[in-house]
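>> received
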Amino acid sequence: MSKTAYRLKNLTGIHLLLGSAVHEVAEYTCKIIDSSGKLPTEETLTDKVRFLLNEAWKESRQLTKDLSPWKASPKKYLFLYEFYYGYGISKDLIAKIKEKMQFSIKNLLTCKSIKELQEEGVEMRLLESMDTFELFGTPVYAVPDLVYKRADGKWVVVDWKTGKEDDAHAAQLNVYCMYLRDKMGVDVEDMIGRVEYLLTGNYRDVEVTKETFEETERDIKESIDEMKAALADPEENIPHDMYSYPLSESKRFCRWCNYYELCEEELSQDGG
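>> returned
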């Protein structure tokens, strides 16, 4: 069961894959600006995203014919769950993905953070850098998409989003800023948290204060306690049996969950 869950965790959907591809070209864009002061062209970024999507498409089709390589090394492959579960990808979905890609790339090149990154005296400090800091004896992962220091001394922590705007993104930015405080010694008064919504071209500067840090720490503590409560043995990280938990009341999104296979039999018995 645990091996199956691990494999299913590594499936990805076409929308998530597009988001990852856009993050990759955003990282590429920042590196080009940092090294040359210039912007890559929209055409260059579009070609890169298309290449990544096409490779995942071809790899997924191949894996449906022979699952053994993916079962042996699931993290090594890009396997779309639309192919794994046999749903396929419709022409309408392909059209939506193309439109989303075009808007995201166009808005990336003109967004506030990319403009600021090109200004005189700006220093890029972190780019897609994964690390952890500790809270309540637990490592907390932080992967800020971009961190730069402006000429006025302000540190800007950026999170690219290719999906809908959501108030929950503010808490995520506060986690990234807490990482900046703990790992780099930056004062909270000198931080700006920013979400760049690449699909719409909007951005949101998130309030970052000692009070929002305290609120985020309380939320993290609550989340840690909830996760530990799901374990039969927290010290050994041994979970309760999956049947200890009831099925979700809403079955609307079950078929689009990576772990659908684990619940399929129980769902069929439940009439889902």
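>> The chain has a mean pLDDT of 92.
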